[in-house]
Amino acid sequence: SGGSSQPPSHNPEMYTGTYASAGYPDFEVKFKDDQLLAFMGGEWCTLKHQTNDNFRLGIEKWQEFMDVRFFTSPNGMVDEIAVGIEPMVDDVIFTRKPLVVSQDILEAIVGTYDLPFEGLDVAISIRNGTLAHTATGQPTGEVILKRLTAESLLAQDKEDERQFLEFWLDGSKMVITQPGIRVEAPRKM
């Protein structure tokens, strides 16, 4: 069937990234010109939405179609995809590769952010090649870098997988989210 009235489970940016599986080239997904594309067979091909997290990948030069299913981890991140590469073989599982961000981007985010609570702020530093956060009176925690867009860098707390920190690349603010909570923290100048 050509598409679905049921929208994808996630914002298209959540599917983007590079996924790996032993013995196969990396499977890369990007969002461009309002469509999801996957790099397969040496070319960018359209991922057409079917239902929920199920898509159909059309490879024009081979005149073939493959089913692609994205899997969401309990923390809400799209971490794996299953690709029906060969009809007679089980789907190949590709796992999201960690995001690598330049030192310049990390350094632009380092600073102190003002929480909207009296006397509380969050200091962001670089530790072990990633970002670390220290809220007033709290131990330092590290994050896992998840998604980079033109505007922001999304990270997930290593200790509390339900907590996300999104940093604006212009250095203006960070937003901390947990289920049911959204806290905006402007950067102290």
Write a brief caption for the model.
With 189 residues, the chain is mainly beta. It has one helix at 103-109; strands at residues 17-20, 27-32, 35-40, 43-51, 54-59, 64-72, 78-83, 92-96, 111-114, 121-127, 130-135, 141-148, 152-157, 164-168, 173-178, 181-186.
What is the percentage of strand-forming residues? Answer: over 45%
The count of helical stretches stands at 1
Give the mean pLDDT: 88
**Major sheet attributes:** 8 strands, antiparallel, barrel
Shape descriptor reads elongated
Q: Order the strands across the largest sheet as they lie in space.
A: 1-2-3-4-5-6-7-8
List the secondary-structure elements in sequence, H or E.
Answer: EEEEEEEEHEEEEEEEE
Q: Specify Rg, calculated over alpha carbons.
A: 19 Å
Descriptive terms for the model:
8-stranded antiparallel beta sheet; 16 strands; mainly beta; 189 residues
What does this structure look like?
The mean pLDDT is 88. The chain has one helix spanning 103-109; strands at residues 17-20, 27-32, 35-40, 43-51, 54-59, 64-72, 78-83, 92-96, 111-114, 121-127, 130-135, 141-148, 152-157, 164-168, 173-178, 181-186. The relative contact order is 0.12. It contains 1 helix and 16 strands. The strands form 2 sheets. The protein has an 8-stranded antiparallel barrel. It has an 8-stranded antiparallel sheet with strand order 9-10-11-12-13-14-15-16, with helices on one face. A hairpin with an 8-residue loop joins strand 7 (78-83) and strand 8. With 189 residues, it is mainly beta. The chain is elongated.
